Amino acid sequence: MLAIVCALRCEAECLIEHFKLKSLPQKSLFPIYGDGELFLTISGLGKLQAAAAVSYLYAMAGERSFAGWINVGIGGHPSHEIGQGFLAHQVIDQGSLRAFYPTFTWQLKGKTETIYTVDTVEKNFTQSGIYDMEASGFCSSAFGLASAECIHCYKVISDNLETPPAKDPLFVKELILSNIARIEELIHNLKETVSDVNVYS
């Protein structure tokens, strides 16, 4: 099974709709949607929430463990165009400087980026990388549950030095929707990676 973690409902909505995920009926700390093989949860803002959502989703799975994990959301960058999507090759917690390194087992078609996870919305962009508020928390939990090639972060640029942070939920949803083909490709590649890992483990 694969798991997707989004911080915001507006980031998650088009994924839920596109992959036809159904809301799980049981009461839970985080809303969970799934189809039996692909599951999604909405963590809320911040790295602590993201870490908790990963742990909670893993616990909810019971004997059917998740083999692959994806964090999907928006982020800011000093110069990248609004709407561009990037996979992360490095995730750095700006507070602790702890770093995580997702590993790719397939040939990449686009550029990857470093993600800097911060505690508040970044406006100065002192580093040339994507800024978000969840990726390092997501990775801190997920890297304890799966191998590096089975954990990935995909961020869509929502703001830069010329454009302020996005506040309109419909606009955020449109940003994610405009990258749905690449997210679908990521899920396909991750399924193949997970299958190979299971064969050789």
Would you kindly provide a written description of the structure presented here, covering whatever features stand out?
The protein contains five helices and ten strands. It is an alpha/beta fold and 201 residues long. Strands 1, 2, 3, 4, 5, 6, 7, 8, 9 and 10 form a ten-stranded mixed sheet that branches. Helix 1 (9-18) packs across helix 4. The chain has one domain (2-200): Rossmann fold, CATH 3.40.50. Strand 3 and strand 4 (38-42) form a beta hairpin.
Computed Rg:
16 Å
Number of contiguous helices = 5
The total number of structural domains is 1
What does the largest sheet look like? 10 strands, mixed
CATH topology: Rossmann fold
The portion of residues assigned to helices is: 25-40%
Write the CATH architecture name.
3-Layer(aba) Sandwich
Proportion of strand residues: 25-35%
Key attributes of the depicted protein:
201 residues, alpha/beta, Rossmann fold, ten-stranded mixed sheet, globular
Give the arrangement of secondary structure elements:
Elements: E1 2-6, H1 9-18, E2 22-23, E3 32-34, E4 38-42, H2 47-61, E5 68-76, E6 85-93, E7 99-100, E8 112-117, E9 130-132, H3 135-142, E10 151-159, H4 169-177, H5 180-200
Parallel strand pairs: 1-4, 1-5, 5-10, 6-8, 8-9
Antiparallel strand pairs: 2-3, 3-4, 6-7, 6-10
Brief synopsis:
It contains five helices and ten strands; from the N terminus they run βαβββαβββββαβαα. With 201 residues, it is an alpha/beta fold.
